[in-house]
TrEMBL record:
Swiss-Prot/TrEMBL keywords: Plasmid
Protein name as annotated: Ppd19
Superkingdom, taxonomy of origin: Bacteria
C-alpha cells in the first residue's frame, strides 16, 4: 500500500492596516515550524495566540537589495492552508494580551521588540502606528461602554 504524504499546511493571517486596508499574508518561514509545534500542543485554541494581536507587515513589495518600509497591522484572523505565497509578514508580533497592557514602560518595551533592527524611518513610523492602535483600542472600549450604559 502506498503512503500518501500529507500536504503541508502553512499559517496565514488576515490583517487590517490603520488605513482600513485588509490583506492576507503568510507568516514568515522562521515562524512556520514553531507555529506547527504550538498548534500540535494547543489544537483547540491555537488561533488565540495571534488573533487580536499586532504584527509587522511590509507596505511595499520586497526588493532584492532593500527591505520595504514596515507598518503595524491588527490580526483579524489566523488560518492554515496548503501552499505558500511571496507576500509575508515579518516575525515580530505582539499577542492581544501583551499589546493591550497599560503603562508607558510596557509600551516602550514592546515597541523596541516590534522595531527590531529596522531603519530609523520605519522605527519612527512604528511608534506612530503603535500609538494609534493603542488609542483606537481605548477609544473603541470607551465608546462601547457608553453605548451599553445608554441602552
Amino acid at each position: 500500500m502506498e503512503s500518501q504524504e500529507e500536504t503541508p499546511l502553512f499559517v496565514y493571517v488576515h490583517v487590517e492596516r490603520l488605513d482600513g486596508e485588509k490583506e492576507r499574508l503568510q507568516l514568515p518561514k522562521d515562524l512556520q515550524e514553531p507555529m506547527r509545534l504550538y498548534i500540535n500542543e494547543h489544537p483547540d485554541n491555537w488561533k488565540a495566540l495571534l488573533k487580536g494581536g499586532l504584527i509587522n507587515v511590509p507596505t511595499k513589495p520586497y526588493r532584492k537589495k532593500s527591505e520595504p518600509p514596515m507598518t503595524i497591522a491588527y490580526i483579524l484572523n489566523v488560518y492554515r492552508r496548503p501552499g505558500q505565497q511571496r507576500k509575508r509578514t515579518r516575525g515580530q508580533f505582539l499577542t492581544k494580551e501583551n499589546w493591550q497592557q497599560p503603562g508607558m514602560a510596557h509600551f516602550f518595551e514592546t515597541l523596541r521588540f516590534l522595531q527590531h533592527d529596522y531603519k530609523k524611518a520605519t522605527q519612527r513610523r512604528q511608534i506612530v502606528d503603535y500609538l494609534r492602535w493603542k488609542w483606537r483600542k481605548k477609544w473603541h472600549k470607551l465608546n462601547n461602554n457608553k453605548k451599553e450604559t445608554h441602552q
